[in-house]
Design a protein that fits this description.
Number of strands: 9
CATH architecture: Alpha-Beta Barrel
Largest sheet: 8 strands, parallel, barrel
Strand content: 15-25%
Structural class: alpha/beta
CATH topology: TIM Barrel
Number of helices: 10
Helix content: 40-55%
Number of domains: 1
Order of helices and strands: EHEHEHEHEHEHEHEHEHH
CATH superfamily: Aldolase class I
Distance between the termini: 10 Å
């Protein structure tokens, strides 16, 4: 059944478990993730991000993800992640996405706030929910000051977080607390105290980006401190590729023979994360 962030994150926050966003840029990924969700009776968030559109155009994804979400036996949020442009984020709403993230986190604070507030009003008129980011979650592949020198300068300020959610009306807030997007070169150091402080100041569910590559205990502790939504892509991307390699090693040489291996590998990787986050049997 199609759901919004409010439908799945409010119970997660109350119950102290996490709900995964698993980006699904093709049918194989969507099949694997939704099969895991239904097998474990777990709410789930699927979708894509603006940086992934070259691998799966937005309208094409909406054409099959939306009916799959509606048919699912568990709550499924169709989420457009890290929308970097107003035009594409609005397009996601028009295509039927039930949730969007409008990421203006690299802008000055007041610009971020103003842009997100305007988009939130529009999204709520569509009946959709909105996630924003405060602070800035960088990229592992980058070489900016976010990964060198004083990364805490880019972390979310708890006092600002309270002001931001009050003035924008967003439904979820992504916080910068020491994670980064991509495959980590070095183990990240999460600021758990900061997560807990922000969670105590605001009632809005908190989101952890850059989750792939964290240890199991990192995830568990982050959830205990107040994280309700965790974004995963790299781990699924790697699992799907490994599924294809396993098929090739078993002399499967045509595309249709590779697909079941990819779907199964993605399903297993998703189930492992759902159990880790504690979302099984919460649908």
């Amino acid at each position: 059944m199609l759901a919004t962030l409010n439908d799945v994150l409010a119970p997660a926050k109350r119950g102290c478990y996490g709900v995964g966003l698993f980006n699904t840029v093709n049918l194989e990924m969507a099949r694997g993730v939704l099969a895991a969700a239904e097998a474990l009776r777990s709410p789930v968030i699927i979708g894509t991000a603006e940086v992934l559109l070259p691998f799966g155009p937005l309208q094409n994804l909406a054409d099959f993800l939306l009916p799959m979400a509606r048919r699912a036996a568990v709550p499924v949020v169709l989420h457009y992640d890290h929308g970097l442009t107003f035009e594409n984020t609005l397009a996601a709403l028009k295509y039927g996405f039930s949730s969007v993230m409008y990421d203006c986190s690299t802008l000055p604070y007041e610009d971020n706030l103003r842009n997100v507030r305007e988009l939130t009003a529009i999204a709520h008129a569509f009946g959709a929910t909105v996630e924003a980011e405060l602070g800035h979650v960088g990229n592992v592949e980058g070489s900016s000051d976010e990964q060198e020198g004083h990364p805490e300068d880019y972390y979310t300020d708890p006092a600002q977080a309270s002001d931001f959610v009050t003035r924008t009306g967003v439904d979820a807030l992504a916080v910068a607390v020491g994670t980064a997007h991509g495959a980590y070169r070095f183990p990240p150091k999460l600021d758990f105290e900061r997560i807990q402080t922000i969670a105590q100041r605001i009632s809005t569910p908190l989101v952890l980006h850059g989750g792939s590559g964290l240890t199991d205990e990192d995830f568990r502790r982050a959830i205990r401190c107040g994280i309700s939504k965790i974004n995963i892509f790299t781990d699924l991307n790697l699992a799907g590729a490994q599924g294809a390699r396993t098929a090739l090693a078993e002399k499967k040489n045509v595309l249709t023979d590779l697909i079941p291996y990819q779907v199964e590998a993605i399903r297993l990787a998703t189930e492992a994360k759902m159990r880790l986050f504690g979302s099984q049997d919460k649908a």
